[in-house]
Design goal:
By secondary structure, this protein is mainly alpha-helical. The protein has eleven helices and no strands.
Length: about 270
């Protein structure tokens, strides 16, 4: 059977969670592939750095980890958001279809936009803290706008501000509910490591941190497994929240109906 036509309607919290898990289950293997592709280098380097001794080793490991995260994670989140978007719109989702939306020019535009929004948030926190929270909510949808609409720099920030206007409470509620679910899953996955540490602590072990190649590898493997499960789940919820705001504020469902009637299968329509 061919794909059924997607019906786009405003979602309440229950609907959003239901759609989140539906997309998450359907495209989980692609999420894992994207996550593994970008995180394997970080995992290997982290594991190797776990054996560096002394303050210089710790500083070096931390510095390399930060640089890799700043360069790799935005790209991974871009591809995940695009994959989630295509899944929600009822399009065929593959690794290649996710990558075709990204190139080196978009990378630098994306980094500049994320840096701009990050600086605004930092400046806000430096100005009596409260403005920092305001900017955090205003620019919460910038990553989705970059990935899905291809809008960058100041226009991306302005568009996020428009979609988030009078919706801070909705985002807080969504973030709170999804956060509880995600971190409950995270805790269950980390349980073996927590039990191991608790048992060794109870036995009077001198150090709580895992030592040796096996334990360092095991520790990172558990953390990565937890991140593989939790990260796409949270991104799926926030991407659907983005679409929900567009449906409510721009009549995105009407736009998609018009596009379908016209036979357009290109980029996501933007008002």
């Amino acid at each position: 059977m061919e794909e059924q036509k997607k019906v786009f309607l405003p979602m309440k919290m229950g609907d959003l969670l239901d759609e989140t898990f539906k997309i998450y289950r359907k495209h989980f293997l692609i999420f894992v592939q994207i996550f593994a592709m970008f995180n394997l280098p970080i995992i290997i380097i982290k594991t190797a750095m776990g054996f560096l001794e002394g303050p210089y080793g710790t500083v070096t490991a931390g510095f390399i980890n930060i640089i890799l995260s700043l360069l790799v994670l935005p790209v991974m989140n871009f591809l995940l958001a695009r994959t989630i978007s295509d899944g929600y719109l009822g399009k065929k989702v593959t690794i290649l279809s996710s990558f075709k939306h990204f190139d080196h020019l978009k990378f630098w535009s994306m980094m500049k936009t994320l840096l701009l929004s990050g600086l605004m948030i930092i400046l806000g926190f430096l100005c009596l803290i409260i403005p920092g929270f305001i900017f955090t909510f205003r620019y919460a949808l910038v990553p989705q706008i970059i990935a899905i609409e291809g809008i960058y720099n100041k226009p991306a920030l302005e568009r996020s501000q428009f979609l988030m206007k009078k919706n801070f409470g909705n985002l807080m509620t969504t973030g709170f509910v999804v956060g509880i679910i995600a971190y409950a899953i995270y805790g269950v996955i980390l349980l073996p490591m927590i039990i191991y540490i608790a048992l060794h602590h109870g036995a009077g072990a001198a150090a709580l941190a895992p030592t040796g190649l096996i334990m360092v590898s095991f520790s990172f493997s558990i953390e990565v497994l937890a991140a593989v499960v939790v990260t796409p789940l949270m991104l799926t919820a926030y991407t659907l929240f983005y679409y929900n705001m567009r449906i409510k504020k721009e009549g995105f469902d009407i736009q998609m109906l018009a596009s379908s009637v016209a036979g357009e299968q290109g980029s996501v329509p933007v008002k």
